[in-house]
Amino acid sequence: MYKSRFKIFFGIIIVSFFVILCKLFYVQIIEGGKFSGMSDSRRIRTVSIDTLRGTIYDRNGSVLAIDKHSFELTVPYAKLFNAFLCIKQNILPEVSVGKDKKITHNLCRKCHSDNVSWIERVAETLEISYADILEKTTNIVERVEKIKRVVEMKSEREIRIKEETVPHSLLSDLSWEDTAKFQVRLMDLPGIQIGGKPVRWYPGGDSASHIIGYVGKLDEKEIRAYNFKKRWFENLEESEEPESEYFVQKAISMNSLVGKSGIEKTYNSRLMGVPGEKFEEITLDTMRVDKLILERPSIPGNNIILTIDDRIQGVAENALGERKGSVVVMDPWSGEVLAMAAFPRYNLNTLNEDYSTLSKNPQKPFLNRPIQSVLPPGSVFKIVTAIAALEENKIDENTQFACYGSLKVGGSRFRCFSEYGHGLLNVEEAIQYSCNVFFFEVAKVLGGSLLKKWADKFGLGNTTNIDLAYEKKGNMPASKSMSQTVNLSIGQGAMLVTPIQATKMIAMVANGGWCINPYILQKLTTYNGKMIMDNEHTSAERIDVSEENMDVIKRSLRRVVTSGTAKKTGLGELRVAGKTGTTQTARDDINHAWFVGYAPFKNPKYCFTVAIEHTAGHGAEVAGPVVENLLTQLGL
Questions:
Q1: To 5 degrees, how large is the angle CA 19–CA 42–CA 124?
Q2: Which GO terms describe its biological process (predicted)?
Q3: Is the pTM for the entire model greater than 0.90?
């Protein structure tokens, strides 16, 4: 019984194998030519699906940066490479009947000239320059070959990189008319397609350009520095984690747009998103898609909400006008930066066209002045000198020094801006009238080490760690002589600070000594609005300063605008407390004009810094009107 069952089972297996062999014989031998032809005429190709970069909003929901759709013309890399070799050997378009057109470095003009004929047809159809397409083709190929060399050098072997297998964008931002015109001739240009592509758009143009920053393709330095095996996306929650490392690595390629400056750079890994992929069956003769086999959708980048108030940013830029310098407005209690204006600046939407001109501009429009202009603070620093002397018990609020217009220290004579002096002054009056000699006397009893100690407490000469790239540190030197200490006590000499550091310093005065750090990221959400992070900075340490001494400084700053160096600015009526500053440059007739302050005086809502660079005027007469314009527009 069992033997018969085994024979039946064994027989079924033999019959099955026989059927399979027959089918294989039929497919490979009898129908082999048919399927071979299909294989030669069709291929499966992988196409990357662009993802949307995250949107950047201000604190009230106004859009500052967003991806919008546009049309682009793409060309397979093989077509570009073939044309590149023809261009290099000066093979111009001619009629060709050659079928076997394998590209080598010894090209035949008769057989291979049609490898560049498509360029002439694209140029004619879209009515653009033939030379422009040649240049773009050359740039793309040279860039791909450069990446290929870098990857091969790192891997120490020959590699076929992704950029050799995908279509490349030759022309972008095509109009509806050009798109429609090209579609008519699409069948005549196998492999060349027009499709949608997201393009970064900035509704404000040049507004907040240094804060937002811009995007661009990886440059040669970034390509060489980039570890192609590294995860690009950090700190993703488990729910956001891409399913495959393979797809994450595809996010970075030659055509990926990465942040180059500002928020676009700082939070690039959050904004980028993960591209998708689709697998298509195509007919090789026409490069037309026969069917879609599989598609993996892209994952849009995270959205970012900033602390910036777009209205206040506009007010600050309007108040600054075309004066070279910067304006910073900040919440003195939290450190939220509400506005950070700089001039000159640049239009983010036309940056590619303007870049060459901007890079040659001696006014340095790419300099993010609030965090990168390092300037001597001048009399603004007298606030710190006064606090240091009061807290170290070197003086009290009743201590007086006489000013007769100058003071000799060692072999040098240091002068007050008042030729005849201010007479006998206490610390409040010295700040009110910005008397240099009073602070020279204070420096003599205070000493350089204590002066540096308190400058460090207020963050001067150190980065604030604001979430923007390329912040400059500045400099607060350790004094090596009494003459140097005297000079540093009034913010001159080798001392250098940035406007954002000065803003942090005045904020600490306004809030009573709490050490807050400026920041710009408020919230982070997924593309569909799910909260990832709420960046509320609530923890802050208070520096060791008495309320009595801080009150002395606050009263002094109020007197500056009511009856002191800024009394003619009209800021007294706006309930402002502040300090003017004027620092010398290499030219006697050119200064840097400062004004730091906060308002309202009794319950500060804003603290601010205005720094006007290379101006003929002084702090009150140049920076003062900017502050008045700013606060008037803010409704104070």
A1: 170
A2: cell wall organization
A3: no
Chain centroid, CA 137 distance in Å? 28
Query: How do residues 170-194 score in pLDDT, each as one tens digit?
Result: 877 777 777 777 777 666 677 787 7
Total residue length of the chain: 636
The closest alpha carbon to 490, from 524, 455, 521, 453, belongs to: 455
- pLDDT beyond 70 at 120: yes
DSSP-derived 3-state class of residue 535: coil
Cα dihedral 602→604→609→615 (10° resolution): -40
- H-state helical runs in 26-89: 32-41, 77-88
* pLDDT, tens only, 582-625: 998 878 889 999 999 999 999 999 999 999 999 998 999 999 99
> What is the spatial distance between Cα 139 and Cα 83, in angstroms, rounded to a whole number?
12
Residue 328, pLDDT > 50, answer yes
Question: What pLDDT does 76 receive?
Answer: 83
Q: List, in sequence order, every beta strand (DSSP E) within 268-373.
A: 276-283, 288-296, 303-306, 325-330, 337-343
Measured CA to CA, the distance from residue 612 to residue 606 in angstroms comes to: 19
As a whole number, mean pLDDT of residues 528-536 equals 88
Give the per-residue pLDDT at 26.
Answer: 63
Instruction: Tell whether the model's pLDDT for residue 437 goes beyond 60.
Output: yes
Q: Are 591 and 492 in contact (CB under 8 A)?
A: no
Which residue bears the tokens 């700053």? 557
Instruction: Report all structural domains of the chain as residue ranges with CATH numbers, in order of start.
Output: 47-306 (3.90.1310.10), 310-352+368-522+552-633 (3.40.710.10)
Cα angle 559-562-563, degrees, rounded to a multiple of 5: 75
**Does 229 or 283 have the greater pLDDT score?**
283
DSSP codes joined into one string, 250-280: TTSSTT-EEE-SHHHHHTHHHHS-B-EEEEE
Mean pLDDT is lowest, of 24-28, 294-298, 520-524, for 24-28
In angstroms, the Cα distances linking 71 to 134, 198, 252 are 20, 8, 21
In the chain the first and final C-alpha atoms are separated, in Å, by 105
